[in-house]
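Researcher: Next entry in the queue.
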Amino acid sequence: MRETRYIVVEGPIGVGKTSLARRLAEAFECELVEELAEANPFLSRFYQDPDRFALSTQLHFLLRRHHQQRALAAGDPGRGVVADYLFAKDQIFAELNLEGEELAIYREVQGLLPRPLREPDLVICLEARPDVLMRRLRKRNRNFERQITQAYLEALIEAYRRFFHEYTRAPLLVVSCSAIDFVEQGSDLADLIREIRGMKQGVQHYIPLGSQ
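Model: Structure for this entry, 212 residues:
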């Protein structure tokens, strides 16, 4: 495919989205867009009391991400961008954490937001086993993530799988990275960049040699 202008890195919590997005932004000399989850004032309270804070947490994410995406869409369409989230994935967390009237309120607010937004040229979806995600979360040791359980990660992995199984808005590269470190291992990153440059339309699955 042509030199990609807008790359999105996605995947469940702890999979390494932001770290990889930063490396790709450097490699492709692109602007980096990060969602900065820790800036959400409701997130730590959500993990302590999900029933009470799910809606406020999700609406804050929705509005913050939409603000970023509007700025991105209003900018130079030719400038290179790497983002560590896909705006459309917001519904993954909404459907996982909300139900009934709260989910209806979320969808109503979502429907009021102006469009269109800029669609990516390529989405990279990182996959890893729940035990790997849990180990990575413990290693980075963020206060607001200490309440995350492996059961929640398993549900999130399944929600991501369902979402991207039906995703068709952009070419999709699914990468297995349970045993791969794109940050520490330069050869792993170089191999992935070659895969990105050779990406065609549709969906491709990439299993690095270290993951086999």
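Model: The chain has a mean pLDDT of 90.
Researcher: Noted, moving on.
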